[in-house]
Design brief:
This protein has 246 residues and is α+β, with helices and mostly antiparallel strands. It is built from seven helices and seven strands.
Length: 246
């Protein structure tokens, strides 16, 4: 079920600006009725007491808002489950792709429009049946166009060596999503190296022995896609590149 998560509760912020604004409010209330300024001042809360009152009010408002929203979702789900199972599946699929915000009130609007015949779930007014089409780059011109970096961590390292960056990329060449893990490996394994963090594949420094880039591919990758990845990586790198399936 598509829904928009509600923000988590936050504590009330007692700031100097709020305290100063409350003091100005007290002065305005007393100045509005100067003959009763003393009586008004007696009924006004102290600044500290007012902040305590606002803290409790803020917590109650957040709790009540969350309860109202949860109750709204329960009511809409109850209305949804009053439909037969086949129709319910159609409505849920329609809700996943409809342009309405993911709020219980809009789900109620959709259910009402379907119940009154204003919307045919088989032929919705926003273009009929929708199919989710993944973003693909079937003919990329560069490695950066085909894959984007989604993760990075430091591997290796020790008392006498510096760790290297291992980067994770993802992309879709047309056959499904692919995950690429890039590691810089030493031709002479007894040397140490580090990888510059402001580069994608290139930018690593090493000792005299040299190094190469190891690209591990996970996902449904054909031989043609594997060759394309190797060609794109070699165009980016000035070091040897080895591309292999996981």
């Amino acid at each position: 079920m598509r829904f928009k998560p509600w923000p988590r509760p936050t504590p009330f912020e007692d700031t100097l600006r709020k305290r100063a604004a409350y003091r100005r409010k007290q002065i305005r209330e007393q100045a509005a009725l100067p003959l009763f300024a003393g009586a008004i001042a007696e009924r006004q809360l102290d600044v500290d007491e007012e902040m305590v009152r606002r803290t409790g009010q803020w917590e109650r408002q957040q709790q009540e808002t969350r309860q109202q929203r949860a109750e709204g979702w329960r009511k809409m789900r109850e209305r949804l489950f009053k439909n037969p199972a086949p129709r319910r599946l159609v409505i849920r699929a329609l809700w996943r792709v409809c342009p309405y915000p993911a709020d219980p009130s809009y789900l109620g609007t959709l259910l009402h429009e379907i119940a009154t015949g204003r919307i045919d779930p088989e032929r919705p007014p926003w273009g009929g049946r929708h199919t989710l089409t993944p973003r693909t780059t079937p003919d990329p011109k560069s490695f950066a166009e085909a894959f984007r970096q989604i993760g990075q961590r430091t591997v290796g390292g020790g008392p006498k060596t510096t760790g290297a960056d291992e980067r994770l990329f993802c992309g879709n060449l047309g056959s499904g999503i692919l995950f690429l893990t890039s590691r810089v490996r030493l031709i002479e394994p007894n040397e140490s190296f580090y990888t510059s963090s402001n580069h994608r594949l290139s930018g690593s420094h090493v000792g005299r022995g040299g190094h190469w880039v190891d690209l591990e591919v996970r996902g449904n990758c054909s031989d043609a896609d594997l060759a394309l990845i190797r060609r794109l990586a070699e165009a980016t790198e000035d070091r040897p590149v080895e591309v292999r399936r996981a």
